[in-house]
Every structure is written in structure tokens, then in C-alpha cells.
Amino acid sequence: MSEERSISFGQITHLLLGNFKAFKRTQRIPIRPITLIYGKNNSGKSSIIQALLYAEHVRRTGELTPETIMKDGKPVLDGGWSRLAHGRGREPFIKFGWEWSNPQSIVGLESGKILHRVESVHELTFQSELNGKGFMSVSDLSDAWISLPPCTGHPSYRSAVATAQKWIAHEFRLRMEDGYASDELSEIFGRLIPLLEEGAFTKEIDSLVFKDTEASLRLASLGLPSKFNRHSRCDGDLSFGQRPPGFGAVRVALGIDEISYKAHEMSPDDMLGAWGLGNDLESHAHSFIVEHCSHLVCRWFIDAWAHFDGPLKSLVGTTHYLGSVRTRPDRVVFRTPRDLSSSSKDRRQKFAPQHPDWILQPEAVKKANRWLKKHQALTANIELRYGEMKSRKRRGAATQATSAVESASTLWLHDLDRGVDLNFNEAGYGLSQFIPVLLACFAEQDHYSDEPAGTLLIEEPEGHVHPALQAEIGTLFADAVTRRKRPLAHIICETHSEHLLLRIMRRIREGKLSKDKVAVLYVENHGKESTVSEMPLDDKGRLIRDWPGGFFEEGLREVLT
User: Fold this and answer.
1) Alpha-carbon distance 63 to 55, whole Å?
2) Considering only CA atoms, which of 226, 291, 231 is closest in space to residue 258?
């Protein structure tokens, strides 16, 4: 039976950051599809963006204490571990975690929280919660492989064990009703079914699931146990796709003929002795129950940890980062191998730029040009153009190497009023800073997978941009996360622009954007540390409380004083 998986992992609702950069005490930071981060200069806004770049780096490389954090081949955080920890590493650890919510979960995994304390590559601890109760915690971890710490008292685990037994009892009853089982086997099933429904095998299942030699978790990049390896004598066929009531997308094909010795040509004693499961048919059936129930519970663990890892993956698994000062080349040149195959991976490589700030996707360029035409009064009636040009073959190169000859896709500007081509450094500085933001909002960042399009991390999208155009960036953000086809999963933006926020608030007031999709954060520097607070919005897009310290009241003060 083939495996089919279609499981929703929910969304991250909060980041947890402690002793990281500007933040000493652990901060609980709301994350929504549009997250706008405000605050005065040097307040710690960038620390949130850098924490996400750190998470993306660790997931990609497995380095918990990197000397340099790279993104698209470009260093985005230099200085090593001491510059990640608060106070330049006087206390050399950081805390990083997240909370997720999945109220529609079909497997009863509705919410979770995990917090890691990272001290070095070999010193990592974590604490986790599932559905509001402590689930697992590991301290003083010194190995990439750990034994499962017992969580037998957790309600979700208890429910999984009980439901696994009820599910097998249901399968036994079906075998009896359809006449598949022999009279002897039916008699045994009749005695075992009530025991299964009462949960009589729970202790034996717990013992097998948590047996050191047979159950272990492998820690993934941030210390998250995400891959469960189970070694068992049982060869039962387990698959996802159909879900029994209350347990989720799990079904076990029992293979009852393993129990029914009549399906084999050897004697019962020989068969059972060879399997080592018991010296009679009932003992064999008993062992069969414990083995298959433990398989189901292990599958539940796989899903449980996938629910912890999945939301973080959707947040930082496919990110595009735009720093506060974006590159301003003459023309943007994307070099690509000539012999691209049709595989998804190679097609994605085709659009991987040598300029990290820029995304070149033909469809995104077309959409950006339609936007530029609509807003030509703000952008001086220019459009984007791109074309292909082949590079020369190097003389003396081996015939075999000709397939690796590079071609180049080039992006430039065209002034429609004057009918001339322009390099980006010949246009206004603000326009060259804005175009990468425009292309990123229209791009599908991982457009050949079934996952959400990804996360856009932006610092100061309003840089060198007219106030009217700053407001239009707010519309771009709103449209990017609400469009029907492959919306961006998250846009997390550090900004000082009041115009951008006012446009977002207007979209909420017009009913084109839900307030639940927007988080407005304020980062405040208290001297020795910074804190993050949320500025909540009502259904009309209005701020429920005033900005701390009179933020954004400069205009009023200038008028009244």
C-alpha cells in the first residue's frame, strides 16, 4: 500500500527570542502574513529579521554557531557567535523558538510551542508544549541522537494509544464479520476485542515505543526532533490517506494471515517459534497487537513532530531577503547553464540571480510592467525589459564542456516617453531601490513546489521613495498575501513609513484585507535591552492604542509648537 500524505501543519503565530541581539528577556513576537516592524533608530528592529535569517541559515546548513550568516552567497551577519548573543556574548547562549496554531487539525494537533536554548554545536536543549501542556523536554543534549523521553501522561499521547487499540479492535471485528478468520481465530479475537477497547495493552505499547534500542529521535537543524526511526520485527503495511475517527490520517493493513497459521504450510509451533512471538496462537496474536499498535503510535509521533517543524519550514524554508540598501547594477545579469533539464530543481536554478536582491521571473516581469503602466505618474513612464544573450565559447575547450556554456538573461529599463533604454544606475536612485521590491512581490519564490510561495524579508522598502509610492507599497503587500494563485506566505518588513501603514489600514477598512493577516509591532530600546509590543488594529483598521513615546506625532508637534 503506497503512502499518501496530505497534512496541514498550521501557521506560526509567534516567534520566541531571548538573549538574542537587542533582546535580553525572551520576547513573544506576533507573526502574521504581513508583519510590519516599527521603532526608532537603533531600537532593535533588525534583530527580528536577523533571527529569521539565522533560522534559515541553520535549517539549510546545520550550523548552530555560524561565523558568518550567508544568504544567496552574500554575508548578511558577520562577527560570529558573539554578535548573536545579547551583550556580545557575555552569556554565550541564545533562545529561539516559535508557537504554532492549527485549529482545523484532523489529527488533534491544534497548537504547539517549542523553545531551544543554543550554547554551541554540542550544547542544545529544548522544551516543547502540545495543545497547551508540556510534551517533551531534553536537557544537556550532547549527541545528535537521543532516546525518547517518556511523555506517557500527555493527553494527546494517551488518546493516540487508546485510539490505536480501538482501531485494531475494529479491524478484528471486521475480519470476524466477513468470515475471513477461522473459528479458532474468531474465538481469540472475541476475547481480545474487549481488552483492546478497554486499553488493556497500553503499558506494553508504552514499553515498546519508548524502548531505547527501538525508538529514537534525530535532531534536525534547530534541535527539533523531526525524523523518527523505528526498528521492529513487525512488517505490517502502514499508510496514510484514510483516517479512522479520532486518530487522523492513519490506516493499518493488518495482514491477518500473519496470525492465521492455516495460511502457512508449517506447523503452528514451528511458525511461532521461528518468529519468536509466542508459543501458541493467542500469544502470537497478543504480540501482533502490541507491535502494530506501537507502529501506529510511532506514526503519530512522526506527525506530531512534523507539526512542530512544518510551520517554521513554511516561514523560513523559502525566503527572499532585501536589505536596507539594495544593489544598483548597470543591468541585472542572470547567468544560467545552457543545458537545463526539465526537472523542477533545474528550472528553479534558471532564475537564480547573481544579484541577490533581484528576482528574474518572466511572469513577474510582465505583472510588474502592468503595475508600472498603471502607476506611470509615479514612476515616470518606464518599463522593464529583459532578453537572452549567449556568452562566447572559450577556445580550446573540450567538446564535452560545450554543454556547460553559459547564457545570460539581462534585465534593464526602457523610458517609454523618450524611447531610450536605461541602465538602473541611470534612473533615479529611489526607482532602482523600489524595482527589486516590486519584482519580489509579484514573484513566486518557490513556484515549482506545492508549498506556500515563501517569505519576503524586507528592510526599509520605502528607502528613497516618494510618499505616494510608499503608500502603493502597502497595496502591493496586501495583494501579494491575498492573491488567489500562490500568495506569499509572509512579508516581514522593517520600516519607518507611516504612509505604508496607512494604506494597509485603509485596505482593512475597505474590507479587502483582514486585520487578522496584519501584525504591527513596535520595538523600544530601554537602554540595556529592547522589548517588542504589538499595536493591535480593530476591524476598521484603526490602532486600538497610541504609539509609545509619541511615535509618529512629529507632524502634529511641528504644527502646534
Assistant:
1) 10
2) 291
- Dihedral angle sign, alpha carbons of residues 83, 86, 92, 95: negative
267 shares a domain with 384: no
Selected residue with higher pLDDT from 25 and 89: 25
pLDDT in tens, 125-146: 888 999 999 988 877 655 444 5
CA–CA gap between residue 514 and residue 517 (Å, rounded): 6
Asked whether residue 454 is assigned to any structural domain, the reply reads no
pLDDT tens digits for range 353-376:
567 888 888 889 999 999 999 999
Residues 177 and 275 in one domain: yes
In the listed set 147, 180, 200, which residue is the last one of a domain according to the structure?
147
**Is there a single domain that holds both residue 300 and residue 229?**
yes
* Domain end residue (candidates: 119, 147, 175): 147
Per the domain annotation, does 508 fall within a domain?
A: no
In this prediction the pTM is 0.81
Residue 52 half-sphere exposure, CB side, CA atoms within 13 Å?
33
In one-letter notation, the amino acid at residue 272 is L
Check: CB of residue 534 under 8 Å from CB of residue 545: no
pLDDT score at 212: 41
Give dist(CA 322, CA 328) in Å, integer.
Answer: 13
Domain CATH number, residue 29:
3.40.50
Expressed as residue numbers, the domain containing 101 is: 11-147
Inter-axis angle of helices 202-209 and 281-316, nearest 10: 50
Predicted confidence at residue 554, as pLDDT, reads: 62
Q: How many domains does the chain have?
A: 3
> Is the domain of 66 the same as that of 102?
yes
What is the helix, strand, coil percentage profile of the chain, to 5?
35, 25, 40
**Nine-digit cell at 138?**
531534553
* Residue 245 exposed, middle or buried by CB count within 10 Å (0-12, 13-18, 19+): exposed
Span between the terminal Cα atoms of the chain, in Å: 77
Please give the Cα distance from 472 to 264 (Å, whole number). Answer: 74
**pLDDT of 534 higher than 90:** yes
Same domain flag for 20 and 169: no
DSSP alpha helices (H): ranges in 8-135?
45-61, 86-89
Q: What are 142's three cell numbers?
A: 550532547
Cβ-based burial of 181 (10 A; exposed 0-12, middle 13-18, buried ≥19) = buried
pLDDT tops 80 at residue 251 = no
Band of residue 558 on the pLDDT scale cut at 50, 70, 90: low
Q: Residue 509: pLDDT above 90?
A: yes
Residue 342, C-alpha cell as written in the block: 526539465
* Helices and strands (H, E) in the chain, number of each type: 14, 23
SS3 of residue 84 by DSSP: coil
C-alpha cell at 531: 522589548
- Domain identity same for 203 and 67: no
C-beta of residue 410 within 8 angstroms of C-beta of residue 331 = yes
Is residue 208 in a domain? yes
Q: What is the pLDDT of residues 382-421, one digit of tens each?
A: 999 988 755 444 444 444 444 444 567 888 999 999 999 9
Summarize the confidence of residues 184-204 as an average pLDDT.
90
List, in sequence order, the alpha helices (H) in 30-80: 45-61
